[in-house]
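Example with several molecule types.
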Amino acid sequence: VSGGAIEVVEREFGELALNMGPQHPSTHGVLRLVLHLKGETVVKAVPMIGYLHRGVEKLSEHLAYDQLAPVYERDDYLAPTANSNAYVLAVERLGGIEVPRRAKWMRAFVSEWQRISSHLVWLGTLGLDLGGALGGGTTLYMYCFREREKILDFLEELTGTRFHTNFNLIGGARYDLDAAMAAKSNRLAEGLEAALPELYAMSGSNPIFVERTQGVGVISKDLAQGVGVTGPSLRASGIAYDVRKAAPYDAYDELSFQIVTREAGDAEARFQVRFEELSVSLLLVREIADGLPAGPIFTRKPLKNPKATKLPKGEVYAAVESPRGELGFHIVSDGSARPYRLKINAPSFKNLQVVPHILPGGLVADVVAILGSLDPVLGDVDR
Amino acid sequence: MSALLTGWTGALAFSVVVLAVAMTCVAYMTWLERKVAARMQNRIGPYEVGFPHGWLQPLADIAKLIVKEDITPRSADKVLYNLAPVLVVAPALIGFAFIPVGQGLAVVDHPYSFLFFTAFASLTLLGIFAAGWSSNNKYALLSALRMVAMAASYEVPMILALLVPALLAGSFQLTALVEAQRGLWFLFYPVVGQLAFGVFFLCALAEGNKSPLDILDAESELIAAYNVEYSGIKFAVFYAGEYAHTLAICGVAATVFLGGYLGPAFLPGFVWLALKCVALFLFILWVRWSLMRLRIDQAIRLNWMVLLPAALLNLLLAAFWVVRT
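Resulting structure tokens for the full complex:
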């Protein structure tokens, strides 16, 4: 919809066409929504994406397999290791590369810590959407970032990098966890468990927060399956699909954890699912830190040449459960050291497809509540 | 003292002093708010400009906003666009003229000063609507439309709640209202006092655009609301107008519910008034920085379904109380 088309909407339909984004405080980056409004009620919503397109898939065709993992960590910039984890899984599956058991556990360990940090960012930004930068929302945001900061500090101590840890290697993991760090991880998890009630008091048990989210942006089971909603947003609609259980990867077949689901499918259900996943992930990191099997984390021959890894001809798809849902990498190999074609199956993109279906009928204030509850990351949408 | 204030020169001098004090207070309210919000959020807040604790920050902010580029959108209604900041700030400042700072000591001590105050406090909304309408921006327009809906709703219970102290004192003169609280502050009258204060406080949050009722300032939805197109000094004037309005509301709440300048004699009356205003402002900040924002339909439902019936019932109770005693 160009500028001219906005005028057409207003002239022909008597509706106010409101251009929300790409520069807007509540579009989680550079999402653009063209809203057709009658008064404050949304009649139609057209999402427009591509403002953060960086051509990652095309770039993949020009880099060697061993150079690519850090590139994908920039895709979903709230949970970097989930991206590289899915990528190395795909490469290992196609190349038949063996991964030591300890490395599998370590991958799950870092993934879960980043899931927690990602969910904390989501909770904080949902607070910003509902409460605004000049209100209680910022306070919740600051509390979430205070907790997240501790996780980033811990990851920095473990990997040398706060965020884009470049943790996953083809055939293993890059950094190991010693006993002192495991104890530190457990202490950190304990502290976070103690902080969760405080965060819940500011959000889930606050009557205004509940008023704003209950019954807002309901995604029915049919709609969720029809559009391809994934991750916590799908589980909030009552479908217990989690890649960690449905197609276990890393060490998830050896770990015991629950899938969190809700039936309502509204913004509040999505909030509750994510919030409960915080506790589930905290239990998981403690389980991993306590039960980490002995052994090496990397058994492949050290690479002399960064372009040494060659995959056999063929196709492969591997997926992980990123904090936003099923994140998959589809690699087509022609037998060389570079992918012939690489396609990223991005969860934020799939979740965003539901937006035109659930925004109409709500108010402008509901738009930001729904977007916040879907937790899109535009780097993941546009790639 | 009051002899000095008679005549034109006296009134002029008095109003200049009140204005200067009020504007300084407004500047330092922004600093206080940033400090309190920061403390609530595990931050430090302004720290660098001025020792200790960045106390020169408001001056730095004003200087910055004065030298910033002042932009008028090409398709804006120029006259109204430039007039709107004045329309917001002037009525809020006029409101200070009615607030008594000592026994029989107010710039304007009119028998109906209470009514005048409420009338002027409502006039700021005219300026806000002018800004939202004249900017020719859809977000500003939406904010202005929200303002109309909110003002039309929240003015009613606010006036009804403010009628209770007037009824209890038997006067519309703010100085007389304070004197009537020598025995007991109106806030502490059983049931009626607390109910009236509660309704008034919620309405004041709505009128002053404070969370959870900052519907027209909802910057996560409307970017920056009615002042989205304003920059530089005009933005600063809006900002000052908003805080002046909040301060005036705190002042009148302290006057009609908390006994205004009354207090133990070891401090002068205006200090007591200032302390009560600061206490009320801190209470507003506490609410503001803790709660999420209501949606507009929920805010208006809260008004018509809860606040208005409560205010009406309370007025009836207060009338009953007055007749009984």
